[in-house]
Amino acid sequence: QGKRDGRGSFRFFERAMDDALRARALMECDLREAILGGQIEPFYQPVVSLHDRELIGFEVLARWRHPERGVLPPSEFIPIAEETGMIGDLSYGLLRRACRDAASWPPHLQLAINIAPQQFQDRWLAEQILAVLDETGFPAGRLEVEITESALIHDLEATRATLTSLQNLGVRIALDDFGTGYSSLYHLRELKFDKLKIDRSYVNSITMSDERAKLVDAIIKLGSSLGLVTTAEGIECSGSLGWLEDQGCDFGQGYLFGKPMSKSEADQYVEGGTTEVSAKTAAERAAA
Ligand code: C2E
Ligand code: MG
Ligand code: MG
Ligand code: MG
């Protein structure tokens, strides 16, 4: 009896595994088709100068416009794309589309694109990006590549080589989610970045505690003493905004300025400025 029960529950377990594997295989298959079929779409989040509150450009954030499930966030498909090696194709398509979208925007506006850790191991990455820039006519000087520290843990030498070729093209490099990795200071010493993006977990907490605020202030000072500009991610309230401006943080990004938006919403944003903050800023400018 006991044995049979054991086998029964094993079979049940097997079936659950089977289902999970099948669902995963289906998802991979779907994603491959989505990449080929152009369902992966760039959304754009405004990046604003904290010196004058002018829009300086957008961060490109991937969205999957799924025919049945609606618009899916990157957490649902970027990890799968990374594990299966589809991330290169995904990024290539996304960058191409973003560079074409940006052609209708004023020429001072910049684009920042996220590149996954394993893509820096690919010795053709700079070549591929150059091909997109050539094809679309988007200038390298308007492009920034965002890298997280997890990329640096894998293979520092390969990553260094890729970063150097990108910088030789004129593309800038930002260290994303700064403060969440393990050995931030080591990487700052070993690699030449152009920008630090202070993670939103730090930015959110500055108005909550003095200690947190001191930490963010220290990061801004560290950046500027190394010749790097800083961006604060995830600014959600005007209290944090004012504080960051006072500390000399260079750029800001967050729901206060705008959530990631579709190309047509970004067009409107570029033309009018649709958020409360930019409206307020416009009023302030008019009054000044
Ligand atoms: P990230 O590069 O740090 O992007 C910022 C994330 O923070 C975005 O989430 C954005 O919507 C969110 N965010 C921005 N401002 C605020 C705010 O004020 N409050 C809150 N609560 N959240 C805010 P999203 O779009 O879901 O992207 C998540 C992550 O997915 C990105 O983090 C990035 O690491 C990754 N990702 C997105 N697109 C790509 C891509 O094309 N390639 C790769 N490799 N990774 C991507
Ligand atoms: Mg990013
Ligand atoms: Mg980030
Ligand atoms: Mg982040």
From TrEMBL:
Keywords, comma-separated and alphabetical: Membrane, Transmembrane, Transmembrane helix
Keyword GTP-binding among record annotations: no
Chain segments carrying region Disordered: 268-288
Keyword Cell membrane: no
EAL domain ranges (all copies): 24-274
Superkingdom as given in the UniProt entry: Bacteria
Listed name of the protein: GGDEF-domain containing protein
Originating species: Methylobacterium gnaphalii
Span within the parent record: 239 to 526 of 526
